[in-house]
Amino acid sequence: MADAREANERRLRRLTEMNRSKAVTAASTALRDAWTAGRSPADIVLRTKGFLTPSSAEDRPPLTRLVLPRGIAQRFYLLAIFEAHCRLRVGDPWVNQRPLSGVGSWSDFVAIDGAYDGRSGSYMPDTKQVRTDGHLRLRQVKAALNTLEELGSDQALVTVPRAKNGGRRRYGEFSLMKETGRGAHQTPDAYTVPMNAWNVETFTVPSDFFLNGWVQILSPSEVATWLILRAHSQWAVAQHAESGVYLYGKRREEGFSLRRDAWEDGCQRLREFGLIRYARPGTLDADPPGFGFEAVFDFLAEEGRERYEPYRWQITDQGLTKDAMETCMRELTLRQQQLNAAAAHRAQMKNEIPQQ
After folding, report:
1. For residue range 202-213, what is the model confidence (pLDDT) as tens digits?
2. How far is it, in rounded angstroms, from Cα 270 to Cα 345?
3. Stated pTM of the model
């Protein structure tokens, strides 16, 4: 419980700084500019096999390998796919047309909270004596490219050429690979926009996920959990609408390599943010958020759940139309108040225990 309280407090601190600096707003504006100037896709199509699920029994899928405590590798790869959909038609090969930094660059697509000084408990000012926000975002982008390339010779999601004689990496000339990775052949399997068809292993993500800040705000484990649930909802459309989708432990671990704590915590946060709900009959997104029937049903769903029965979930895309920063700040602030109250109650109970 103490770890949860501290983790939530750190996340709130980061979001508060990003909100103050309008980092998410600026990144979302850059993404919307690319979306408006391009093909303005309503949905982004993602390949499943090799990205969400492993290509072989020996491999872990890149999606969950990118559930990391630091860095933006998972986020950057999804942003690169979004940018490709804005610019390319189905089947068109990917060629980088953006610089790493500057107006409309890859760095402009990324929101970060800045340089935090743990000793003083404050964010460092943006002066000549410290790195500017632009430098920090560029450094994060380069680190993300390193991580994506170092997934392995077959699973690498980008390739970054080097200067002659094995010199420095030329990050600005990176190439994007398909969700299945670089592949085992000498010629890299460069990214192309896939077709979303029933006989192709794909699923879709609404552009609102990128345009309204969710890609910037959600944690890597929350993103992985949401994408897995989203894919399931489109693989089993009727089941999703009638009774929801779920994952048993063995399927979660062997099929997606996602730990139980990451999955369960991710599901709870996504429910609080309004992106999923406990499965129930009725039209998806029909009920307004807040107290009332939905809250009562959610409570009953928890109370009536069998001990070993997995939760069944439904995706609620209406939540994606909301501002991610506003939604998450509200819900995480409420959660922090609850965690603080629980900690104060435990301390009080401990003090009231009579000494032997």
Report:
1. 999 999 999 999
2. 27
3. 0.88
pLDDT (tens digit, 9 = 90+) per residue, 57-76?
667 889 999 999 899 999 99
Strands (E), the chain: 43-47, 116-117, 122-123, 158-159, 175-176, 202-206, 276-278, 313-315
Interval 315-342 mean pLDDT: 95
Question: Could you give the CA distance from residue 191 to residue 149 in angstroms, rounded to a whole number?
Answer: 14
> Partners of 330 in the beta sheet?
none
d(C-alpha 239, C-alpha 260), whole Å: 23
Distance CA 136, CA 322 (A): 28
Q: φ and ψ at 278, to 5 degrees? A: -60, 140
DSSP string, 119-170: TTTEEPP-STTS--HHHHHHHHHHHHHHHHHTT-TTT-SEE--B-TTT-SB-
Alpha carbon distance 178, 77 (integer Å): 10
Spatial distance between the Cα atoms of 260 and 267, rounded to a whole number of angstroms: 11
pLDDT at residue 308 greater than cutoff 50: no
Cross-strand pairs, 154: none
Residue pair 178/163 in contact (Cβ under 8 Å)? The answer is no
pLDDT (tens digit per residue) in 215-267: 999 999 999 999 999 999 998 888 999 889 988 888 888 888 888 899 999 99
CB atoms near residue 94 (< 10 Å): 19
216 vs 79: CA distance, rounded Å: 10
Residue with the two structure tokens 């401990």: 350
Position 310 confidence tier, pLDDT thresholds 50, 70, 90: low
DSSP letter at 39 equals T
Question: What 3-state DSSP class applies to 319?
Answer: helix
